[in-house]
Protein: DUF6295 family protein
Organism: Amycolatopsis iheyensis
Amino acid sequence: MCTYLTEKFELEGSGKGARGWFRLDEGTVYVDHPVHAPYAHTVNIDFRNPGLGASARVALELTEEDALALADAIHAAVKSAPEGLASRNQ
């Protein structure tokens, strides 16, 4: 079952695609059918720069267990660094 619910957020970062590094300014997270992963449904995470066209995209298709592990790892890494070290206001 697809949820058709998409969490969209603005971001500032960089991603690497087939043509090299590019600026990212949009992220989306949704549960849907994957394109490549061998599962019926996955947690899909896209990091994009729509202004650069369809190739300016970094995509992830993860099981819910792996998506939650990724979220936990991000929280742990940020928590272990000095506050503000990787902030937009550095």
